[in-house]
Amino acid sequence: MKNDKVDIAQYLNNPTKCSCGKTHFAGIKMVEISEGALDKVAAFVRDSGYERPFIVADCNTYEIAGKVVLDKLADHGISASSYVFADANLSPDEHALGTLLMNLDTTCDVVIAVGSGTINDLSRFFSFQVGLPYFIVATAPSMDGYASSVAPLLRNNLKTTFECHVPVAIFAELDILASAPVEMIAAGFGDVLGKYTCLADWQLSAIINDEYYCEWVASLTRHSLERTMKLSEGIARGDKEAIGELMETLILSGIAISYVGNSRPASGSEHHLAHFWEMQLLWGDKGHVLHGTNVGIGTILVLQLYQSLLHETLDPSSFQGIEAPHSENWTADIERVFLDGASEVLALEEVMGKNDLQKHQQRLGAIAEHWDQIREVLASVPSPAEARKLLEEVHAPYEPVHVGLERQWVYDALVYAKEIRARYTILQLLWDLNLLNDYAGRIVPEQ
Ligand SMILES: [Zn+2]
Ligand SMILES: [Zn+2]
Hints:
Rossmann fold; two-stranded antiparallel ribbon; globular
């Protein structure tokens, strides 16, 4: 088992010329996931020539790791400033960013984010905007954004992704990761599970739209994904080594994004569903579900779509005549479903023409021509039952109802989540074949 372990160091700061035509590169200099990882922070600060770090944490992550980091820096004669948010359920929005800006010690020369999702997204954007490098002290293996260069933030109450920079390093202490709350570890596992469908979606688009695809990057992600799935039992038990590997897979997923230059290798239809629910929860003020938890639940639904299409008896020679699903009231439907975000969704369609009739006919031609190849992709993913079992093993919610997602949101997500992004996935393929509404109705039956 041990010998096929991924060695993350070889993927850092090392340009790799690939047969896909790209030179893949991720600018992170160091990833340290170990017992005693925090002991290495001070030496890293000194060796990198930083003199005065600015630590960003919330009241929880400060207790878990921030205090220790400050002490260790002080032991090495490095003085640091910090800002600790009193709210552990912080929103990554204008208010939080303004607070950081008002509290920045301008003599600082590096930002250290101590936390997981929100603290990182805020620190990544904040450090980028003020022109400082940043690195991470991670407190939970809960999502795959650690190594990412983008920050999803809330602007005017709308989730918007900002291009920023990658951290120069990531430190993760195994004892801290393993004692993270079960639901955070399960969420990280759910975010990894979603790689099955996002990689398959990427292949579908490469086949149907000739989209850029790199088999090397895809297989790198697939390999670490499969290893992590085999570790479900250890992860559920809180085994440090298994949780360390989960963290590595989450970081590698971010590296794969840097390699390709967009989130294709890490985010497909399962993420569209998750983002859809995240927006609905936010607008409805219905509380918060961890991102990876939504991704896990979304993955099960998407796998049901994959399986249903695989078992459908279809004659590709009849595809050319398929009419696009047409709604008289499309604009009104989008306004009903996307509320505050409707104008952005409509503007995206205006620019990208995902549902343009001519493009639809062109895609039908490609779908018919490559139908056998498409069926191979459909057959390559796990069954919904297998994936459900994996989530159950790590004590993750696996049905929308487990986290309070309403039936209507599940149906609407299946039918409309594809409108959030101009990214071809199984959702758009089913729309192309005029099966999407039908499948959504089957998965979410009328009560
Ligand atoms: Zn490549
Ligand atoms: Zn994710």
